[in-house]
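This part of the workshop introduces the protein records we will be handling. A record pairs a protein's sequence with a compact description of its fold. Backbone structure tokens are a discrete shorthand for how the chain folds in space. The question running through the whole workshop is how a given chain folds. The record below serves as our worked example for the rest of this section.
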Amino acid sequence: MFMLAQFQGPYTINPSFEHLDHNILITRVSCVQDWGRLMKQAYDHLKPSGYFECAEFVIDAFSDDGTFKQDSPYREYINNLNKAGEITGRPMNVATSLKTWMKNAGFENVTEVVYVIPYGPWPKDPKLKEIGRWQYVQAPEGVEAYGLRLYTQVLGWPESEAKLHQALVKQQLRDKSLHIYGKLCVVRQFSLTIPLQVILLLTVAQDMWSMVGSVERNERKKSGARCLESM
């Protein structure tokens, strides 16, 4: 059973369901004012054998070969996002703090995995190259979605100037000579007391979800084929 609720408010759970089996938070940056409180609520309403996971991007970019300049539009964009998050009281760059917050809330057996997400098909590793191809397409599309409102309503930029600057950011992200990557932090608590049957069920569900995602990716691949063929 899935329930829809305001995740920052008090948890209102149907009395017939005392606690939750699963609680997953994905890319909630700029949405949360008190992460400690949110983690504690998740802990208090999770079954002892339950599963809790957070996945957030580090709001930053990295380069190992110097192609990402500190005076570039994308660097300024990242700095502006983090500045706006601090002003609103909803910090953006929280990924590296998730593990600590989970432990402070009472979770045990907390693990953290950091995934490298390249921006573009420049890596030699085939898997990273494929991820980079998709990131090359989708990252520019998210520039205004993440930043336009923060630029205009929090930082006070005129809309025309905000769009002009973010157009430069998109242009930079499409530069194939730019070898940058992001980091995705996935932090989870998986109790060692979970029955094997539940683990197998979760594995099957994950495989089914992957199949659905594969179909969706194939459909997107058809629509984005022209862009990808040029790389």
Summary: The chain has a mean pLDDT of 79. Strands lie at 20-26, 46-57, 110-118, 181-190.
